[in-house]
Design a protein that fits this description.
CATH topology: Immunoglobulin-like
Strand order of the largest sheet: 4-10-9-6-7
Helix content: 10-25%
CATH superfamily: Immunoglobulins
Number of domains: 1
CATH class: Mainly Beta
Structural class: alpha+beta
Oligomer: single chain
Number of strands: 10
Radius of gyration: 22 Å
Shape: globular
Order of helices and strands: HHEEEEEEEEEE
Amino acid sequence: MDARMKALALLAAAVTLTGTGCKKGSSGTAGQDVGMASTREVSIGSVQLGRSLSGDKRVSGSTDKFSPRDTIYASVETSGAAPNTTINARWTYEGQQVVKEDSRSISPTGSDVTEFHISKPSGWPKGKYQFTATVGGSTQSKDFEVK
């Protein structure tokens, strides 16, 4: 077999293997690995906290100090691509008490920003808080205080 025929045979084998692992509705570990790899490709770049958002869901005027009646916004910037992944958010008070847990389904194709927020009309207790965002194996936290 000459070099050209060998190259064509290798190309045909590669196309066959690639097509088999990516078929919609296929079962087995090849299809599962593709989905898991997509989730791992999305990571958190930054988290910003503030009292308001701009039109692109980014925090306007980042801060870590809030008043008891403030609405507290978090902008989570992600990078990567996935057909469907979930960002989980957790707001905690004084280290352990969960204030709120939330999640958003996203389908990023590059850089993306997702917004979360909390509010309490009767006012937040004064103290130290933390916002934590997780997507796949990527986690970022921001500490803040209500004074």
